[in-house]
Specification:
By secondary structure, the chain is of the alpha/beta class. Helices cover 37% and strands 13% of the residues. The strands form two sheets. Strands 1, 2, 3, 8 and 9 form a five-stranded parallel beta sheet that branches. A four-stranded mixed beta sheet has the order 4-5-7-6. α5 links the parallel β4 and β5. α1 runs parallel beside α9, α4 packs across α5 and α7 packs parallel to α9.
């Protein structure tokens, strides 16, 4: 039986299909790789911020034994490790190899760590707004979400010296997120999708928005879910992803997003896997290790929006 609702199906299940556009990456690269540091620690749910609960996600004990309603000091300490120690280790790995990355920046977290904000500015990494706090936007009302976006922009202008040009929610957006981003008007792209290996255009309320997809596949969050146990697991998985994309890139270049969480990958026994992968890709030619804003700007220049390019008519109520 066909669906009874006559309205258009507001999802695109086809995308580019079997013949995606050749992205013409700089240097005739066969693959574009974007490394993302998720800077969240200090903005998570906590008693000190009035949330009435502690956050334990992506820690060594994601199922906290502390009863709901009590402060989890162990969980707080595991978050603190990420920015007290893990941040500096990851920054060193990229500095030693002269490689760029993108910071998915939770604004309040960076307000609380001025040395980290300064180090990010000095290193020249770009940043994408990861919200005012590390909270799920789909739990916010429309007005609450609008206020979070405003607070995040104002905060990042102060800590990192300029407004964010990209946006990414925790896990996934609300049905209002993209409309609110378009209403604000200053975002060149958002990354609130996991459905492709190339950027693409959508229409939201009649206006074009560029999507630069993210990935939870090549993402160290799998340490927190028990998928990766060792640095070998992590390195092997990322290497295999890279190898297939690099081979396909002879005719159909794509992009690869690698998400990093400081309280996970920042530990030595995991960071060694990241270091091996960075060294591995640097042994290949025609690899573009790019900032996310560079990918967005390249796509906007190479494939400027024209009517009919959009893949999704609308996201929202």
């Amino acid at each position: 039986m066909p669906p009874s609702d006559p309205s258009p199906y507001a999802r695109d299940l086809i995308g580019y299909g079997p013949n995606p556009p050749h992205p013409r990456w700089p240097g005739d690269a066969r693959i574009a790789i974007n490394f993302v540091m998720n800077y969240e620690e200090g903005s998570e749910y906590s008693f000190l911020d009035g949330d009435g609960r502690s956050e334990a996600s992506l820690t060594e004990s994601p199922a906290s034994p502390v009863p709901v309603g009590q402060r989890d000091l162990a969980g707080e300490g595991m978050f603190e490790y990420g920015v007290r120690v893990g941040f500096w280790r990851v920054m060193r790995l990229f500095a030693e190899r002269k490689l760029p990355m993108t910071i998915f920046a939770c604004a309040l977290a960076l307000e609380r760590h001025a040395p980290a904000a300064q180090a990010i500015r000095e290193a020249g990494h770009d940043f994408c707004c990861h919200g005012w706090r590390w909270v799920e936007h789909f739990k916010l009302s429309r007005e609450e979400e609008r206020e979070h976006i405003r607070l995040a922009i104002e905060s990042l202008q102060k800590t990192l010296g300029s407004r964010p040009l990209g946006w990414y929610c925790r896990y996934g957006p609300s049905v209002n997120t993209r409309a609110l981003l378009m209403e604000e008007g200053g975002f060149l792209y958002d990354s609130d999708c996991y459905n492709d290996e190339l950027p693409y255009w959508v229409l939201q309320d009649g206006k074009p928005q560029l999507i630069v997809p993210y990935s939870l596949v090549t993402n160290d969050s799998k340490f927190g879910r028990g998928v990766f146990a060792t640095s070998d697991d992590y390195f092997t998985f990322l290497r295999d992803q890279f190898d297939m994309l690099y081979a396909e890139g002879a005719t159909q270049p794509k992009m690869m997003s690698c998400g990093l969480h400081l309280r996970a990958i920042g530990h030595p026994a995991r960071a060694v896997g990241l270091a091996r992968f960075l060294d591995y890709i640097q042994k290949h030619d025609r690899v573009w290790v790019a900032r996310r804003i560079e990918i967005a700007e390249h796509w906007r220049k190479t494939f400027p929006y024209q009517p009919g390019m959009e893949q999704i008519a609308k996201v929202g109520p």
